[in-house]
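User: Can you help me understand a structure? I only have the sequence.
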Amino acid sequence: MYSVGNLRASHYIIFLLLLTVVACGEDRRAQRTEEDSKPKTQDARQEEETSSLESRGSQGFASSWPMFMRDISYRGISPDTTLRPPLAVVWKFKTGGPVNSSPVVVDGTVYVGSDDHRMYALQARKWGVKWVFEAGDRIIYAPTIHEGTVYFSARDNKVYALDAATGAEKWKFQADGWINAPVVAFRQRIYLGCYDTKIYVLDAATGERESQKLSSIKIGKLKYICSQGEFYPMDARYRASKWRQGLRSESWPATANGVVYIGARDNKLHAFDAATRSEIWQFETDGWVDSSPAIANGILYVGSRDGYVYALGNVTDLTQQRADTGHEGGQGDRETGRQGDIPSVAPVLSLESSSGVVTHDSARVYSQLDDGAEIIAQLNEGRALPIIDQTGDWHVEPAAGWFKVMLPDGQTGWMSASDFIRVRWSESLQVNDSLVKGVKRLALPQKAEEPSWSPDGSMVAFFDNISAQSLYWKAKSFWLASSDGSDAVWVADGSFFNSRISWSSDGRWLALENLARTQRQIWMVRSNGTGMTKVAEGEAPAISPRGDRVAFIRRSEASTAVWVHKLDTGTEEKLGEIPIQGQESYAAYGYIADLDLPAWSPGGSRLAVGLDGYHYADNYSRVAMIVPDGIIREIAARAGRVRDIAWSPDGFHLAYVTQEHSARSATSRLEKQVHLTGLDRSGSERVFEHCEGIAWSPDGRYMAFIEENDCMGMRRKLWLLDVKNWQRIQLLASREKIHRVLWLANNNIGLVASSAPSETAPSTHGWIVSIAPLPNDSQ
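Assistant: Let's start by predicting it. Here is the structure, written out as tokens:
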């Protein structure tokens, strides 16, 4: 038992302890008061501003990423504590163009723009589209979500405001110049920087301009600056540049759970330990990752210039999810082969043996094959899907019939064979499995370039010893080989500035151009490499269909003349002369070394010649049709150059390529176009943008041409146009830059893809593609 004295002693000790606690509390309060009176650091002010935003912002801000870099300080820090590398693909969505825009995430929805001019609202947890809005131009910067409204800018210099739930347009505002940064929403106002240093302040509800400033402005407690249309917090770029060191990167860093994520132009998303700055993981796409990541609810979202928006989550979570569901959780095509991915399990069929791709943007998927069918999805070009079933006879009508496919969300639907094709990989080409029988790679010597097959495909001519030391392409030797490039035989040395070769229709002779000192000369040689003879002085030789004449061009400072050399008599005749009427500086620029060859009509009675813009006062090019009496017709093109003229075998159509377009703007991708003009009285014309390389089938029913893909990854596609039905059929796609196509005999097509000369690898790749018989007018 305690005595009374012991109890008193205990009470006294407790009293002293209470005094100590009170005193310590007073000291801490005094310390806090003193610290509060000191000037806050920039980081402390940003922390305070961010906390204030979270308390005032949308519901669930702590699990959202409502604007570029998450908050107006552009610190890019997520409170997420679950995400940790390695990560794997939860889902990926294919847009119709490169995704430079950074995603944002609010209330279970991912909002992201694309170069296809569209703003997408996607489901955050699984593959799926809520709505799509079409703007007036490319969307390359992140949107911002503020009080139920989506705000973003497009390259048409407009700011759009949409209802976040429906995508309905509320208003749009036209700026006076380029907007080179995301817009910012804060306290019912929209802030945007405009080229050069102009800053607009808009009413968020109406889009009305409230004020306008130059160079800088305060948003909350943060100072924003505007330069060259770029509009950011004053020190944000400096903080971002710390994580870009050693990377070729335009992305901004996002941080979660002690890990920093940033994209780069090596096509990868990189992850670094925030404390040690050591790289701990990377994920590879098929395009530059200029997009900046967004992190919410344990998932990272990022775009790529391969056209996809990627959602990445923890590998352990996805493994369990796929084990529970028995398939890949909404991922409809294989995600293997990249660091950080985990193998997918095909839900129905082996994707190696039964898969296909969408051939164009906004392709429709129908619920069933009858009049009551509903559109259940619209997919963009390049999306791969497993095939479950198919209808139609592919060998009789390649563009007819239907495919039953499985969508990434598990639904099944039907797609037309004109929108979707079965594919397989062959010799690095993704080919239409219904049409391509085989692919054989061309084996050229190292550094060989510009192969050209004989009409029957039995031989190939090419140039070697390429020089890139001057302004123009130049080769020092000319060679012949078997059709696959084997058994190559040297023919002659020279100075070859024009890589274009003309074969006689029987394949017995070739004509080419050589520079002897300052004189351009036309030479002919047999297909066995013998009998090389100079036949004329001039450029760009073209052998007539009967092999009895050679057309060529002679140029002077004042004009361009078209001549014909008769091989049996050795005489020459000038068919026409076109004066140069354009500006002198333009004419000098337009004088190119690799002049395009004149094109003979099938019967040899007419020539079609491309005349570049410097010939005319309006600087627009022309296609001129010439007979012995002179020019009988001109087809004008709003472009600086005309290339690759090709008559259809029946003589009813003329195809050609134009480039250097007057309609091209600084923000457009317009470069080359394929034109197909009817030569009957209707004068009909079709134009295919971003295309080049023309070849006609021997019967004239089909025209092959090459399309440049807008997204990185699959760089080129080869199309067959059924001229009778005006249907396009995708024959193949390639990661290499195919630029020339030749239609050979026996249903063979020759393809050429070139790259810059290299000391260690061939600079030119080629293939001979064998295709199945196509329907023609005789069948």
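Now, to help you interpret it: The domain at 355-426 is CATH 2.30.30.40 (SH3 type barrels.). The chain has five helices and 59 strands. Let me know which part you'd like to focus on.
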